[in-house]
Amino acid sequence: MAAQRGVLFQEKVSRMLSKQHGRPVLKPNKPLVLKDEVANRRVKRGGASCVTEISVLMACWKQNSFVESVCSAETKAFYSCVDEAQAAKKNTSELSAMQGERLPPKQATLLLKRFPNLRTEI
Amino acid sequence: MAASISGLLKPWTPRVFLVRWSRYNPYYLEPEVRKEAYIKPEAELSAEEKEQRELKALRPIKAATNDVTSSVFSDPVISKFVGMMMLDGNKILANEIISKTLENIKRKQVDKYHKAPEGKKEEIECNPYTIFHQALENCKPVVGLASIQKGGKFYQVPIPLSDDRRRHLAMKWIITECRENKHRRTLMYEKLSQELLAASVREGNVIKKKLEMHKMAEANRAYAHYRWA
């Protein structure tokens, strides 16, 4: 069925290019060949992490006129929050590679480059 | 003549291999130079350390660079600082400056030690390496600022920094401050020793710069939501 669909499509394209029925619909300046790559989609922005920790730390700084030694507890909490956020990001980015039965564009490009479109017969 | 031409037809490999811009295959592992990692008996290794050892038995390992040694005197932080201070590839000079700096710090501290009254003698730190590490820790900023565009305008947003970035900023500030803001006729090791001693007690221009960075971040704390990480 896919082969049949391919043949019908090729016939339609050749009809659009031909001059048999008046002017041709398509006048391509480059050969009609698919590229071996896929365009990159825009990365969705996530929310900012550790905002509460930052605000708590900065409130402590403001109260104590930026003396570091007094705010050591808040600083430690901030660092631990940052480490957790980084670990969480690493885990989720590994798992959510499949977005709704669709390959991510980088993987698609990699596969297409490995099995490229044949442009010449030799 | 016939002999020389037939000599050229032998299978040939180049005697010199270009390595300047080449890169190891990512399959290769980093070498472990520290002696402490090998002295540990089998029982004390955790599961992941055992895995690492087994992996190292199977995988190829990169050659160690000339900078790393297993001696007790080599310190990766000091090596990084030397590399950052180096100009035009003159690492010998950078190394000499750093060793003179450490010697200078030690002299000043021992001088202070001998002049101090009996009660205060234990408080004076004479080890220049601990002073260097303490000064670097005191100069590291906790949060940094990133220029993020939102709605056509650029905002300075406070962001958490990675450890490497913080260490790099601290070292860069120390070096720039010593190069630019000191008296013209003082030598670099003198300037560095003054700055490091001041930073280890939280004084000096580098600490001021770090506090300014913190103040800017605190002033812009409302924009912290503009981050997307």
Automatic annotation (TrEMBL), chain A:
GO terms for molecular function: RNA binding. GO terms for biological process: mitochondrial translation. InterPro entries: Cys_alpha_HP_mot_SF, Ribosomal_mS37_met. Signal peptide: none annotated. GO terms for cellular component: mitochondrial ribosome; nucleoplasm. This is Coiled-coil-helix-coiled-coil-helix domain containing 1.
Automatic annotation (TrEMBL), chain B:
It is found in: Mitochondrion. InterPro entries: Ribosomal_uS7, Ribosomal_uS7_dom, Ribosomal_uS7_dom_sf. GO terms for biological process: translation. Residues 68-221 form the Small ribosomal subunit protein uS7 domain. GO terms for cellular component: mitochondrial inner membrane; mitochondrial small ribosomal subunit. Keywords: Mitochondrion, Ribonucleoprotein, Ribosomal protein, Transit peptide. Gene3D superfamilies: Ribosomal protein S7 domain. It holds the Pfam family Ribosomal_S7. The keyword Transit peptide applies. Its main location: mitochondrion. Belongs to the universal ribosomal protein uS7 family. This is Small ribosomal subunit protein uS7m. It comes from Champsocephalus esox.
